Amino acid sequence: MTNQITIIKIKGYGPWTLKLGSDREARLQILQSKFYINVQEKFSRRDGIVYSNRFDELIAITNGISLQQHNEIQTELSEFHEDLNFLMFVGTGPTPLDAINDAHNAFLGNHAIGDNIYASNVDVTHIGKTGNRIQILHLDLDNSTTSLKDLSAYRITAFIFSVYSGLINEFIRLKSLTFYLGGDNFMVVSSNLNQQQIESIINRINVTHKIKFNCGIGNGLTGREAVMSATKALDTIRKLRDGGKVTSIMENVSDF
Same domain, yes or no, for 188 and 97? Predict the structure, then answer.
């Protein structure tokens, strides 16, 4: 498997925010929300998927998205946010962690391949080439509404973020990237893990936090395709669970 990841960053965001004065926070939250919406829409339309990193920086899974398409997205973003500039750093690698490290090296190396688009690999002809499948996991907490009902809204958030931290630390050891989707859902861009490896991690998290995870495993040529496959697998688990056919932790991992 070869992973292609693009980091999308608002250029000079910190200094730009200071120009807005002290009464800027609400405006910045609105801007960040619009930034995420626009980037997600533009990449998903080209079969990518975007995750939040920091709010002025997003991470896109861009297998199958060419340099030309990156340039098109750059132009579209600039037209919508006329007072901002955007940077893109494209990286590839055998694992998601390798790919994002390659994208970071593009940032450090400052090797431009387009209008504010950078890549550490001088040979840019491979950007967007299809044929390599990627693996994504979609996880959710089993029956979280009932199991967390005694916690206040903020205590639930604190608990979820504790679980999130555990998932990040577990999966990054296997060169995989974990993202929080909201609610009780998480997504892992994974490094061709087998079911035993995934079950081992989930069991450790389950025991540590006294919870139970469902996990759908998806594969695809693009980020959007892999996410769809993973979500279909997760939906299958839910149907089996609701029908009383999923009875153990080990059965809560499904490869669609």
Answer: no
Kindly state whether residues 104 and 138 are assigned to the same domain.
Answer: no
Per-residue confidence band for 249, with pLDDT thresholds at 50, 70 and 90:
very low
Q: What are the structure tokens assigned to 191, written together?
A: 């490094």
Total count of residues recorded for the chain: 256
Tokens encoding 26: 């609400």
Question: Rounded to an integer, what distance in angstroms lies between the CA atom of residue 63 and that of residue 73?
Answer: 15
Number of domains in the chain: 2
The verdict on 239 and 174 lying in the same domain is: yes
The b/e string for 61-77 (b: 16+ C-beta within 10 A; e otherwise) is bbbbbbbebbbebbeeb
pLDDT digits (tens, 9 = 90+) for 214-228: 999 999 999 999 999
pTM for the structure as a whole: 0.91
CATH at 13: 3.30.70.1230
- The residue behind tokens 């029908």 is 243
